[in-house]
Amino acid sequence: MIRVLLVDDQALIRSGFRALLDLEDDIEVVAEAADGGEGVELARRYLPDIALIDISMPVVDGIEATRRIAADPALAGVHVVILTNYGLDEHVFDALRAGAAGFLVKDIVPEDFLHAVRVAARGDALLAPSITRRLIDRYVSRPLHTGTGTGLKELTNREREAVALVAQGLSNDQIADRMVISSLTAKTHVNRAMTKLHARDRAQLVVLAYESGLVVPRTF
């Protein structure tokens, strides 16, 4: 059962998402919050698999809520998915840097929304290749000097290759096909790279790959 926390200051939005999720046998909405601070507290209380968090809220916004969740070791299993009205903007990138697993636009069709919740629950990033390219082109290409160089030196050549493919938005199965290895081996390379780079999830791995210079923007 996928446990979901809804965090949005608009009750109508929360009720709409809850109505969709409640129809699914494998998904349960465990709690709702109207601001980020309350959302973090409820995350600690219920330990959901997914926290769907609106990026723009009064009191504590989605970026700060994401940052607090990502910084709490007790919430390591909570995957934050940012909800936004505006598509890809700099605030979304800030949320990904803070530790979000991905983002969804609120006008997403129901089928895609439910699929996205299940994808995030598996620990996969909600970053399609087209979205990744836009993210890179608009923001990550700026040098940010986050100090991840030391971690990069610990990566094997195959781990570096896997990270570069993750940064293109590829799944483990697609990485396996590209590297001519098994899906299990691809997953192992990705997970080891995440551990060495202290990346919370695949979305953060994408950000680290570009901010560190491991992958150069506009190369694919």
Automatic annotation (TrEMBL):
Q: Which keywords fit this entry according to its UniProt record? A: DNA-binding, Phosphoprotein, Transcription, Transcription regulation
Coiled-coil region: none
**Keyword Ribosomal protein attributed:** no
Residues modified to 4-aspartylphosphate: D54
The residues covered by the HTH luxR-type domain are 148-213
Query: Record's Pfam families?
Result: GerE, Response_reg
Xref: InterPro entries = CheY-like_superfamily, NreC/VraR/RcsB-like_REC, Sig_transdc_resp-reg_C-effctor, Sig_transdc_resp-reg_receiver, Tscrpt_reg_LuxR_C, WalR-like
Query: Response regulatory domain spans which residues?
Result: 3-121
Q: From which domain of life does this come?
A: Bacteria
PANTHER family in alphabetical order: TRANSCRIPTIONAL REGULATORY PROTEIN NARL-RELATED, TWO-COMPONENT RESPONSE REGULATOR
Give the protein name, as stated in the record: Response regulator transcription factor
